[in-house]
Amino acid sequence: MDMSRRARSTSSKQTSTSSDASEIPLLPTKADNNNNNNFVADERPPIPRQSISQRALESTAHLANLLPTGTLLAFQLLIPIFTNNGSCDTATRPMTFILLALLAFSCFLACFTDSFKAPDGQIYYGLATFKGLWIFDYQAASISGVPSDLNRYRAGFIDFVHAVLSVLVFVAVALRDKNVVSCFYPTPDHETKQVLDVVPIGIGVICSLLFVVFPTRRHGIGFPVTPDRR
Description:
With about 230 residues, the chain is mainly α. It has helices at about 1-25, 30-45, 50-60, 70-80, 90-110, 140-145, 155-175, 180-185, 190-215; strands spanning about 115, 125-130, 135. About 60% of the residues lie in helices and about 5% in strands. A 3-stranded antiparallel sheet has the order 1-2-3, with no helix packed on it. A hairpin with a 4-residue loop joins strand 2 (about 125-130) and strand 3 (about 135). Helix 4 packs antiparallel against helix 5 (about 90-110), helix 5 packs antiparallel against helix 7 and helix 7 (about 155-175) packs antiparallel against helix 9. The model is unreliable at about 1-30, about 30-35 and about 35-45 (pLDDT under 50).
C-alpha cells in the first residue's frame, strides 16, 4: 500500500511539473528575432516616388518661389503705388507697363547669375556669359581665391530656357494681381475675363512642368540655395 501511494504521489508531481513547464513562455531566440525583424521590414509599404506631373502641380501652387526674391518684392511694393490701387489713368498706365517690363527683364537676367564659394567661406556672385563667369567684385574675389576653371559656369541652353520660363511665370503672377488687371482691364467683358482666369493657370502648369524637366544647378541672385549646387 505504501509503495503504491508513493508511486502515485511521484507521478502526480511529475505531471504537475510538466504542466507548469508547458505554461512557461519560451524566450525568443536570436534567429527568431532576425526573422521577425525581416518580416516587419518586409511589411513596410514602399515610399511612393512623386511623378513629374505631381511635382509640377506642387510647383504651380508656389509660383512665386520660382521668381527672384528681389523682383517679387519690388512687384508687390511698387504695383499698388504705380497703379493707384488699380485706378490707372493715361499717365500711370504706361508707367505701370514700363515697370512690368523692367521687372520681367530682371527675371530674365537673374537666371544668368551664379555664385561660387571661396576658400575663406565668402560667396561671390557673377554673370554667366558664353566664355565663363564674369565676377562682379573680381578684386575682392581674387584675394579670397577665384576658381581656376570659370568656363564651367558659362551660359548654356538651359539658362535661356529658365530665363524664358521665369518671364512667363512673372507674367502669370502679374495677370493674377487685381491691381494690374484693374489697371489694364477695368471693365473686361466675359471672354476677356475667362482668358485672364485660364491663361495664368495654364502658364503656371506648363512652366512648372518644364522647370522640373529642365532643372538648373545655378545659385543666382535672389534664388534659394539648391542642394545640388556646385
